[in-house]
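Hi R.,

Here are the chain sequences for the assembly we discussed:
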Amino acid sequence: MRTRMNREDRRTAILDAAIAVIGERGFHGFSIRELALRCAMTDAGLLHHFGSKTDLLLAVLDRRDMQDEHAIAALLPHGAAPRSRAQVLQVLAAIVARNAQHPELVRLYAMLRVEALAADHPAHAYFVTRDRMARRRFAELLNLPGEAPDRLARQVLSAMDGLELQWLQEERGFDLVATWNETAERLIP
Amino acid sequence: MRTRMNREDRRTAILDAAIAVIGERGFHGFSIRELALRCAMTDAGLLHHFGSKTDLLLAVLDRRDMQDEHAIAALLPHGAAPRSRAQVLQVLAAIVARNAQHPELVRLYAMLRVEALAADHPAHAYFVTRDRMARRRFAELLNLPGEAPDRLARQVLSAMDGLELQWLQEERGFDLVATWNETAERLIP
DNA sequence: GTCTATAACTCGATAGAC
DNA sequence: GTCTATCGAGTTATAGAC
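And here is the predicted structure of the full complex:
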């Protein structure tokens, strides 16, 4: 007896599988057929829900954005008012803790961020916009007395991304949050 | 009039072009044909020099290893004796300065490191071995009084990789070496 | 809504002429 | 040593049956 799925559940299942498979092989490296197999359907069936391979990728990014937007917005305080170092460290720890619970997403973004360096990659524009916004938000957060927020934001953001990739490479063999906290403690004066 | 090339020059030209194209599209994303076009030859002609796509990738990594081994070995001092903080910072700056002069290589390794997280990627074993060795060397270098070298090596190495990727993302729009020095100054106690 | 069938193309790799 | 020609398999995407 085959499982029936309504439209929305089916789309969700495909997008979840797409996160994993694109994170593993990259946009160029995965095939619609391979993804469809993981969803126990044919490639034609999958393309009924998402018109093309590119549209599927954009749908993945779109949905993640909507979901993450709420969580990140709740973590990052608004306004340019300086805040205490302890507050900043706490916000950063919360972001990393959240990522530690979703390694497939960390991997997806690590993969796409490198692939999308190419100007003709379907996610190029997305990452240009997204990363500029991320730097702006971090600069706002890191607006500490006597610091250059832009430079510090660049260092903190890249150290966070780098450590998360290292964590995937070592197969999550160390405590990401604890190690990050040690890094942040030193990086932020 | 067509340019004549001997075997070694031709192989070198192909490998140089391969560094660029694999860095842009990844191992899965580039085609032998595309690479051959950049070298003004056919795919069959290219495969005469490197038997297969996988062999070509391994040849790229092999040659880079041999060339880099000399440079890195000259920079990294041997032995486990503790050394001064200033010495350590100087070695790290020299490594980053070297990378800043070869953005295509930084991009190649950034791409392959993520792709090779997959156990069936042709460079998986290479990166497992290479990164373990890098961590060991850095831990040796960072054997500073009162520190846990392994933990510190992980943080320093990942921060360096992360900043280099950020530098590519911002199209080399900031001074990589100066920014790294500021990071290292804070990260290393 | 998912299938089969197929179009139109590109892939890596090989064989053999020159 | 590089070419043309070609193979078989793989790709995205579409058309139409059910």
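Chain B has two domains: 1-59, 76-189. Chain B is about 75% helix and 0% strand.

Let me know if anything looks off.

Best,
T.
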